[in-house]
């Protein structure tokens, strides 16, 4: 079950944090079965041997048939990503874009992937690069028929790393994720923001903003925050500084008038809160 902090319309980019591999199996089966019903090509990117994954997926009759007919493939993590290395985010997006176009050319309506990504985030450098990639691929998904479930074993990556990854997805099962920052368009200047921003999230929010690396369009960055439940002065100051570093204005669209009043009180040039009704 995904977190309550998901968009009202599913984006199809899910961070699945697990402690129990059986729970991942069930989630992956549901995710892939939905793609099968949508007419998409399906991949399961396995961190280990393919045979055990095939056996587990075959427990679902529809997926067993898909494996037999070739619309579902179990592929090696090493054939899809550079395991043991720091991911090249733009190159990885291009690889999935090519695979998506190939799926479309083959008569499918898109590409849907479950990826066991734990081995790709073991070191701090890997985690930083892969988190940046997660936002890049999220942008790509906004206007192309690619869907993905990114699976991370909390027992191996640790709670902090899992949260750093989950907060850059529009959908997650990790209920402890305090906020989510995700692409709202392919250009990279509009993002969605949900959850709560307070003293406990100050460092995490700063890290997420840096990794998202938002790009101004016409001198503006826009945060669509209709589902943001709380924002404190620290987060507003962080946004003002983020705007200054990028020589841009930041617009925070939120239904909470308190955020607008606080911004006016703090006198934060470069940051505007638009109260959306």
Rounded to an integer in angstroms, the radius of gyration calculated over CA atoms is 19 Å
CATH topology of the largest domain: Rossmann fold
Largest sheet: 6 strands, parallel
User: What portion of the residues fall into strands of 2 or more residues?
Assistant: 15-25%
**What form results from the Cα inertia axes?**
elongated
Strand arrangement, largest sheet?
Answer: 3-2-4-5-1-6
Identify the CATH architecture of the largest domain. 3-Layer(aba) Sandwich
Unreliable stretches, pLDDT < 50, 5 or more residues?
A: 1-9
Summarize the structure in words.
This protein is α/β, with parallel strands linked by helices and 277 residues long. The protein has two domains: 13-175, 3-Layer(aba) Sandwich (Rossmann fold); 190-275, STAS domain (Transcription Regulator spoIIAA, 2-Layer Sandwich), CATH 3.30.750.24. 43% of the residues lie in helices and 25% in strands. It is built from eleven helices and eleven strands. The protein has helices spanning 21-37, 50-57, 61-69, 77-80, 89-105, 124-141, 154-157, 159-166, 202-212, 233-245, 257-266, and strands at 13-18, 41-46, 72-76, 111-116, 146-153, 171-172, 179-183, 190-197, 220-231, 249-254, 271-275. A six-stranded parallel beta sheet has the order 3-2-4-5-1-6, with helices on both faces. Helix 5 runs parallel beside helix 6 (124-141) and helix 9 packs parallel to helix 10 (233-245). The radius of gyration is 19 Å and the shape is elongated. It starts with 12 loop residues before the first strand and ends with a strand. Mean pLDDT is 93; it is low at 1-9.
């Amino acid at each position: 079950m995904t977190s309550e902090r998901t968009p009202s319309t599913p984006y199809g980019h899910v961070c699945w944090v697990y402690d129990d591999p059986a729970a991942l199996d069930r989630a992956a089966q549901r995710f892939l079965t939905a793609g099968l019903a949508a007419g998409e090509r399906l991949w399961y990117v396995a961190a280990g041997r393919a045979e055990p994954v095939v056996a587990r997926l075959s427990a679902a009759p529809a997926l067993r048939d898909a494996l037999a007919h070739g619309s579902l493939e179990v592929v090696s993590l090493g054939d899809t990503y550079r395991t043991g290395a720091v991911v090249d985010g733009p190159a990885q997006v291009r690889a999935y874009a090519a695979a998506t176009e190939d799926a479309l050319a083959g008569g499918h309506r898109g590409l849907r992937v479950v990826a066991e990504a734990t081995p790709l985030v073991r070191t701090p450098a890997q985690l930083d690069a892969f988190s940046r990639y997660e936002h890049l691929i999220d942008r790509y998904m906004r206007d192309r028929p690619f869907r993905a479930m990114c699976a991370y074993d909390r027992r191996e990556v640790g709670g902090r790393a899992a949260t750093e990854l989950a907060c850059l997805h529009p959908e997650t099962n990790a209920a402890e994720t305090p906020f989510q920052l995700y692409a709202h368009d392919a250009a990279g200047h509009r993002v969605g923001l949900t959850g709560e921003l307070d003293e406990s999230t100050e460092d995490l929010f700063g890290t997420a903003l840096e990794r998202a690396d938002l790009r101004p369009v016409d001198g503006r960055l826009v945060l669509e925050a209709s589902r943001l439940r709380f924002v404190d002065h620290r987060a507003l100051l962080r946004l003002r500084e983020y705007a200054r570093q990028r020589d841009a204005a930041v617009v925070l669209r939120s239904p909470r008038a308190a955020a607008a009043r606080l911004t006016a009180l703090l006198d934060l040039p470069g940051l505007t809160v638009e109260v959306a009704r």
